[in-house]
Amino acid sequence: MAQLKRNGIIYVFLIPILIHFIIFQVIPLGFSLVLTFMDWPVIGTPTYIGLENWQNFFTDKIAWKSIWNTVLFSVYYIIPAMAVGLGLALLVNSQVKGTNFFKAVYFLPVVTSFVIISGIWAWMFKGTDYGIINYVLSWFGIDTQLFFSNSKQALLLLAGLSVFKVCGSNMVYYFAGLKSIPKHLYEAARIDGASSWRIFWKVTFPLLLPIHFYVGIMTTIGSFQVFDSAFLITGGGPNYATTTIVYYLYEEGFTGLRFGYASVLAYMLFFIIFAISLVQRKYLGKEVTY
User: Is the peptide bond before 41 cis (omega within 30 degrees of 0)?
Assistant: First the structure.
């Protein structure tokens, strides 16, 4: 009882958070699991169908294509997003003239509405002679490209859009990591005659391992949850080339009103992200000592 009184203020703040967590996290999670065994058409009576939704997943060619598209998107997106973020952080950390201005410019896409950025991106890569990128390519004698109407180019362009959107956030994370590295390590390396390139690979890059891990996890989760760019620009096309797992989940759940099958897709997405996160944890989530 005495302990309850002593920690009473903690429970006052903790209980509302726990209630919120149960209502908006635990209960929906449990309900979604129940939905995977149901045929729930929203309008009408829900019917228990056992493992039929799970069985349908393994024979659904579009579902597997959407997973493959998501994996390809991740390949196009994760490493470039991390590399560009690190490069921008190194540039800002170099204390070149106008650093504060460049910080704002690099971070501007992060705080800009994704709808606006998507509209600009679609306008730039318009698949006609009037598209600005096609106009520039014409200077070099390159034929008009279809871009978002081309099955081989559309997904790559969506990945480029996401890299442009997120590189400012990654820059902030890497910049904070660069500031935490003790300066005497750089001084010791220079005294030993190490070049700038060798200092980067032997000092800077290894000591940023915790930042690599965090940024890698966040970009991976973001890549497997990509939806807005496919929804706003391509609508999953052409020929399902940009149909990602989350976009397909949205189509099944909110367009086709097949919430049971959409829940199965959501759980498969969870299993994939969880497995990849474990792999990243093993190879990147190591302790770093100075």
Answer: no
Query: Average pLDDT of the chain?
Result: 88
| Region label for 278, one of left (φ > 0), alpha (ψ between -120 and 50) or beta (otherwise) | alpha
Report the pLDDT value the prediction gives residue 262, as an integer from 0 to 100: 92
Contact 242, 158 (CB under 8 A): yes
List, in sequence order, the alpha helices (H) in the chain. Answer: 2-6, 8-21, 27-35, 52-58, 61-93, 99-111, 114-124, 132-138, 154-180, 183-191, 196-199, 205-207, 209-224, 228-229, 245-250, 259-284
Q: What are phi and psi of 38, to 5 degrees?
A: -125, 155
What whole-number distance in Å separates Cα of residue 198 and Cα of residue 28?
51
DSSP code for 203: I
Domain ranges of the chain: 60-284
- Report residue 56 as tokens: 């349908």
Which pLDDT tens digit goes with each residue over 211-251?
A: 998 898 899 989 998 999 999 999 998 889 999 999 999 99
pTM for this predicted structure = 0.87
- The per-residue pLDDT for range 93-143, each reduced to its tens digit, is 887 777 777 778 888 888 889 999 999 999 999 888 888 899 898 898 888
What does the block give as tokens for 247?
A: 């976009």
With a CB cutoff of 8 Å and minimum separation 6, the contacts of 250 are 227, 231, 262
Nearest partner of 209 among 289, 286, 290, 280, judged by Cα: 286
Beta bridge partners of 39: 47
CATH class held by domain 60-284 = mainly alpha
Helix (H, G, I), strand (E, B) or coil at 126: coil
pLDDT, average across residues 155-183 = 92
